[in-house]
Amino acid sequence: MKAQLRTNVLKEKCFFKHCLCFALFLVSILGFQSTVIAQSYELSPGNIWIINDDVFYPGTATINKSTQAAVDRLGLYVAARPDLKILIQGNWSNEGNTVREKLYSEERALAIQRFLIYTHNIDPSRIQTVGYGSARPLTVEKTAADKARNRAVTIVGLTKLSDKPLTKNGYAANCTAYLALLEGNVQTKAPWDVQFVNGRYQQQLFEGHKLNVYNDSRAAIRFVDGSLISMGENARVVFNGGLDFGEEPNMEIDRGKIHIELRPMSTRKDFEISFPDGKLIFYGERALLNVINGEKAKSVSLSVFEGNAKVIYKGREYFLQEGEGFQVQDHEQDTLKKSKLPKTPALILPLDNQTVYKGKTKFSWTTNAKLNLLQISKKPDFRNYVYEEVVAGQNKTVTLEKGTYFWRVSSLTGEGLPGSPSAARRILVSEEYVTMSLIDKKAKTVFEEGEKATLITNVPKDTVVHEQLFSVMGIVDPGSNVFINNTLLENVSPKGVFSQKLRLIKGQNELSVDTRAQNGLQNQVSAKIYYQPIDKIRCALTLSPVIPVTTSNYSLGLGGKFIVSYMLANEFYCKMTAGYNAYLVEAVANGFTNTNRKQVNSSIITEIGGIYEFFPHSTTIPYLEMNTGLFWLNRSAKVLSETRKSVYFSPGIGAGVIFVTEGQNIGLGGYYRLIFQGSDLIDKTAEGQFAGLLEIQLTFWF
């Protein structure tokens, strides 16, 4: 039993030993094969062309004529591709002398270079050489055949501008961009291609890649940082990459419409595009470049939506700010003229995600531009259009079949230069009758039911301000459009916060703030803002009927005053007043009133005092005034032939309201003047009483 057990254990050990040896054998085989570089007869990224050791005479850098066909094949390949650059890499086996190994490898690389130049007329600037010696073996040297393999010459392609290898360690180099969109007939031609071939979705793009976009087609290049270059139909461009190449542009456009959406790269401060007779250096994020370069028509136009740009056209430099553009209709034109782009339209109906019945659908928007481009697509990126038309107005009815659509509007200048397009809206067209949804109901019954969009502002109903710049601030529903005096506000944050400074004119200013939410609800706030510059010194004229308060033989009088005031604080003014009053009295003779005789008494008033205004920023300003001064009375005596002149101490208090109107402030109030020792002003029957005068004041401030 024990012997049988020992035998089984030995068998198991032998089995595991054989399995281990077999596994090690497989690993060695796989490891050996992983070091082998496959031969390729093209130089696209990831491929290596190998010139074997037997092409040369043994131990030399001289090409063997009997085997030079391998080098001829390389020469024919490179000659047929004039945009392709190559790197010839010499190698050598490990012989224990690194200096000699490197020298031999360099001589073999130079020998291949000379053969291509003199036999196949290859431009020397397209060929670079390097000798690695035994530093980069192609395989592990175990046999003489392995050593011969390590003495092979390898060739890889180079990028057109930066001269970087297209193949590194047997793998394709990283690209800077790829084709993110292919619609219709789009063809590409890389430096290693002989002719144009059909483009492929997600195809990697390297320096010198040419792209042709034909009729009814569209393409887009996506950079590794997320930037996007969209190309419309009939576009022909050369892509040079996303890095700074000094004198070389990032892209060359011969014709076509290019929409630029850039994101800042850490290695790029600007993006250059060359076009016939000029170059665009773009510092920003969004722009639209359109080049027409045909036999009958030639034009160039640019719209800068975000950022700024420098345009070099026929040797002259022009700088364009955000919201500006230019258009050159004829290439024979020596200068270009900048234009102000129209503002982005505000979409009204249909609402975002609204369902409508198939058939005629009315699209509406608001803008100050006369011409607008309406675009309707089944794709959210508008790669193609179901409907595209320039509309002279702010609405258009379009017939649509069942499906999902996206629509947007761009305003155009009089020359047809487009401004930044609006944000896209999505609509669903149904074959069934659409029951009014809650969102549609809100849009249609907003004025009937009183339901309104959110609009919270700092705008008072009516106010008086003393600063010319007035800040309008507020909050609306996220995604809403805000209009101030019918002008679309562009700086509304995603959370619905907005702020805008307005420059007021002197006098009355009409202010309206409107909002239109995405669900169709609306709201409005309007006010009158009176701009009244602060004057430290103010003058006024006052007209006032005068009414004696005590029992007297005086009738009504009429007075006038001139007032000069100086502002000590925002609500308080000190004042100086000079005035003249006239009173009608009945003549008295021998103690009896003569009703048939009338006389006129007069007085001169001088005062100092103060005025306090309670609400200086409103259009109706209550005020309180207090004064003290002297009252010079020039009056007739009871005996007709006599006149008397007296001086009295005369304090007083008054109140009223100042009405702020455009161009003129008018005050209306009452004033009571107390006259001490005033018994001489009244009849004997009133002797011992204080005399007083009540004035109704009408004041004109200027």
Explain this structure.
This protein has 702 residues and is mostly beta strands. It has five domains: 49-168, 60s Ribosomal Protein L30, Chain: A (2-Layer Sandwich); 175-340, Jelly Rolls, CATH 2.60.120.1440; 346-435, Immunoglobulin-like (Sandwich); 449-531, Immunoglobulins (Immunoglobulin-like, Sandwich); 537-701, Beta Barrel (Porin). 12% of the residues lie in helices and 49% in strands. It has six helices and 46 strands. The protein has a 15-stranded mixed beta sheet that branches. A hairpin with a 2-residue loop joins strand 44 (652-661) and strand 45. Helix 2 (69-79) crosses helix 3 (98-120). The model is unreliable at 1-17, 20-36, 435-450, 587-596, 637-641 and 678-689 (pLDDT under 50). Pfam families: FecR (PF04773), OmpA (PF00691). Residues 43-161 form the OmpA-like domain. Keywords: Membrane.
- The tally of helices reads 6
Rg measurement, Å: 47 Å
Average pLDDT works out at: 79
Helix content: 10-25%
User: What's the number of structural domains?
Assistant: 5
Question: What is the level 1 CATH name of the largest domain?
Answer: Mainly Beta
Largest sheet entry: 15 strands, mixed
What name does the CATH topology of the largest domain carry? Jelly Rolls
The tally of strands reads: 46
Topology:
Elements: H1 2-34, E1 49-51, H2 69-79, E2 85-90, H3 98-120, E3 127-131, H4 144-150, E4 153-158, E5 167-168, E6 171-172, E7 177-183, E8 186-189, E9 197-198, E10 204-205, E11 209-213, E12 218-223, E13 228-231, E14 235-239, E15 251-261, E16 271-275, E17 278-293, E18 298-313, E19 316-320, E20 324-328, E21 338-340, E22 346-349, E23 354-357, E24 359-366, E25 371-377, E26 387-392, E27 395-400, E28 403-412, E29 425-430, H5 438-444, H6 446-449, E30 455-457, E31 462-465, E32 469-476, E33 481-484, E34 487-488, E35 497-503, E36 507-516, E37 522-531, E38 537-548, E39 554-567, E40 572-589, E41 592-613, E42 620-636, E43 643-649, E44 652-661, E45 664-675, E46 691-701
Helix pairs in contact: 2-3
